[in-house]
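Archive maintenance. Older records in this collection stored only the sequence; we are now back-filling the structure field for every entry so that each record is complete. The fields below show one back-filled record exactly as it appears after the update. Entries are processed alphabetically, and Adenosine deaminase is next in the queue.

ARCHIVE ENTRY
Title: Adenosine deaminase
Organism field: Actinomadura rubrobrunea
Length field: 367
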Amino acid sequence: MAVMDHRPTLDAIQRAPKVLLHDHLDGGLRPETIVDLARDEGYTGLPTTDPDNLRVWFEEASNSGSLERYLETFTHTVGVMQSAEALTRVAYECAEDLAADGVVYAEVRYAPEQHTRSGLTLPQVVEAVLEGFKAGERDHGIRIGTLVTAMRHQARSMEIAELAVRYRDDGVVGFDIAGAEAGYPPTRHLDAFEYLQRENAHFTIHAGEAFGLPSIWQAIQWCGADRLGHGVRIIDDIDATDEDAPVLGRLAAYVRDKRIPLEMCPTSNIQTGAAKSIAEHPIGLLRRLHFRVTVNTDNRLMSGTSLSRELHKLVEAFDYGWDDLQWFTVNAMKSAFIGFGERLELINGVIKPGFAQLKWRGARPLA
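Back-filled structure field:
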């Protein structure tokens, strides 16, 4: 009797309509663009001006297992993103690259405060990025929302939150805080989160990546986060000694019961030491327990990855089929910060039909 090959290939996954919620604009530049912008803007700090060698340098520098070391690579990408022209170009190319990977909806985040060294104001930074994304949407048929990010070790979160509200009708769909977690709890920015809640605005918080359960607890219970950026350490509140009957602690049960989305980035989590390997990544258990898990890229340049590659790694590690990949994708679309009607239209009009066609093509008998 013939059996069916349910394992999606990388090529097939690239054709699937995908959704990406956690992608950093300054972590996804093309090496060629970094070299061009460094020359145009007089930035002299690059370790090499050969694009191929530069790509290798970024990937190798990001494999230290330390979040702090990982974040150091952003010195160079942020360094060449200090003009309106550079920001617009990077945003446009981001839209182009994501669309080429089959992404139909993406939320891309960046920290406006990091792009003002050459005199740009915060609104000018936001407007330059929006210009690039709007052009990319028009030319490549992708829908992109942006998240403006505040750095958790700085004191400008209220300013950035106000930007999120000011530009929410122009393409900014939410707010985020990022940076090293240890020593910089999200509660330091409580006034910004309370302001966003009063304004009915959406926000996510980087939590549970390099730091443990207290970071997740504060992000949810004190700050009211709609989603968790990474949230990998929620696994610390699950006793999986009995693989057939894992026991959830109160925080893990709350996160699952409330359907709080987890923006997981497998390759990046390994690079920063939040997980040991793809096969040991908490995403496997969390998917089995039906947490609201989503799959993301984090920083495509540093991790040498794409959303298709992230999904394919999970296929190889956990023997996932099309139904699993569709589950991750629908989770992400349900969790997006755009309106319910638009989310539903993408799920029913693009994602489910796209996966149905791929499943039909992939269901071929093996001799």
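Update note: The chain has a mean pLDDT of 94. DSSP finds 17 helices and twelve strands in the chain.
Entry marked complete.
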